[in-house]
Amino acid sequence: MVTLPFRRVGDVPFHNRVELVFNIYMERKLVQIGKSLAVTLPVEVVKALELEKGQTVDVSVHPTTGAVTIRGGAKYFDGGKVTKRFRELTQALLEKRGELYRRLAK
């Protein structure tokens, strides 16, 4: 079982909280799906990050270390309208860095 150093706080999901989260090390096996290889995530990680089957995630590979990072992607639009989560994320970013953006815009 994987013990995660984070969890939900009340009704605030993990991705909307601002806190330091330490790296979690997991050794996982690659599984073959068709001609591709995939890495599975433990159910504890899926639940903590509120991931869902079929959800788009952002994957990046560090050019020097080869470290692979997977992040739950933010769905920007749904039915032609901006999603509530995207609006919340952008609002939090503006509250955190709004003054910097105003100075850069001058």
What does this structure look like?
The chain is of the alpha+beta class and 106 residues long. It folds into two domains: 1-71, no CATH class; 74-106, no CATH class. The chain has two helices and six strands. It has helices at 43-48, 84-105, and strands at 30-33, 36-39, 57-61, 68-72, 77-78, 81-82. A two-stranded antiparallel sheet has the order 1-2. A hairpin with a 2-residue loop joins β5 and β6 (81-82). The longest helix is centred in the C-terminal third of the chain and has 22 residues, at 84-105. It starts with 29 loop residues before the first strand and ends with a helix.
Largest sheet, in brief, is: 2 strands, antiparallel
User: Total number of helical segments?
Assistant: 2
Query: What fraction, in percent, of the residue positions are helical?
Result: 25-40%
Question: What's the overall geometry?
Answer: extended
> Could you tell me the number of beta strands?
6
Distance between the termini: 52 Å
Strand numbers in spatial order across the main sheet: 1-2
Radius of gyration, in angstroms, nearest whole number: 17 Å
